């Protein structure tokens, strides 16, 4: 009988049902109470306090001011739904149970941390037997966490769930070990095992952290795509900026505007471009502008070579490079040529008409095959280079005279652009002159200005040396004129004679030039008395928009009182 079992115990003893009802108790327990409890009373109603510990294996009880510890008895009873608890009263138990409660609270916190970790947690003993895992390991491996418990890492390796064991490496090396390996689900994981030492300094546990790198790799890919898109947008913005006239080419004339628009259309194709025009018209400026506005500006360099400035016997090595020991005096390590240096970018072949016939064949092969071969080399090398060539000679006539290969001519002539001389685009002269004056003032720390009559000379002079001649003359005037105002008298003697000729030609000017000269003089005179463009428009009986356009065309500033 249950009563006889409890009665034999010399300590307070009770028999509880699975739902905490008091089935029976002994004399020692009764003596603790003021009133005998009724049968099947709930233990929580009988005692002041009743709190289970360690999964109902023990309980802390309080009766008034007295505290007891009840422990689950191992004695077997007929009713398996019921359980005998034996109590013991001692001052030490109170402190012990306080510590137990603290430890249980900490355990719950640690359990929550482990279970809610986004990384997989895998804990084994020193022999590799799995003690515990968390739910994250299911997400990472696709295998229920319960499957791992009780199994050794060697078993998991044999079944193909693990590739190798970090646990054994930690035990062997007695330190934290990390490795990257694919898991059972095919995901790339970072596995880090850390040893836990006991008081004797021996490893008793190995805690392994498993991080799924697929999410991180996906994030890295997304970041890479975002950066690529960002760089693409930056290039587009820079490209849009280059659509403005102030992108290295200063122009007002319709001819140069057309060239500027053509450059914008062909900037991102790889077709060869042939720049034609007299010396000094700005062929290199156009070539650099095309490079700046192209996608190649972010992938390679703009490399220029003057085919007429290098001796023919050296030009081949400059263009195509050479291997070590290719000829006497060669660099021991060899040297890359201009084509290799321009990889991904643009090679500008200036004065292409001076290229020897022997090299024209090799250049034709580069254009056709997209590959070069160094001097002394045995293997060709692929190159990704766009070719822009320029000349002031008549290549078609050179072809007719046998001085230039016809097949190369047509390869270079895919997109020909003829840059007109300054005398055929006079509207660009004064804006260019102002740009060069501003540049020289900044370079030499001056505040020089042009006299209106000098500006008139600039406009009517034919400039046989074109833009280069204009730039050089302005630099000379800025440096040699002592006064802040540069006048016609400041011109060198050879230009003063030309000035008289230009004045003599004024009677033979075209109708368009006569109209422009008249417009300019009228505007220059009107700004002496008018302070705003609206006053000018009213005085000249024109629209304000027209006045603004004309002032910009002739580079006349309303605030600057121009004297005739």
TrEMBL record:
The keyword Metal-binding does not apply. Transmembrane segments: none annotated. Pfam families: AAA_lid_14, HTH_50, PAS, Sigma54_activat. The lineage of its organism: Bacteria, Bacillati, Bacillota, Bacilli, Bacillales. Residues 249-479 form the Sigma-54 factor interaction domain. GO terms for biological process: regulation of DNA-templated transcription. Residues 216-243 form a coiled coil. It comes from Peribacillus glennii. This is HTH-type transcriptional regulatory protein TyrR. Keywords: Aromatic hydrocarbons catabolism, ATP-binding, Coiled coil, DNA-binding, Nucleotide-binding, Transcription, Transcription regulation. Residues 106-152 form the PAS domain.
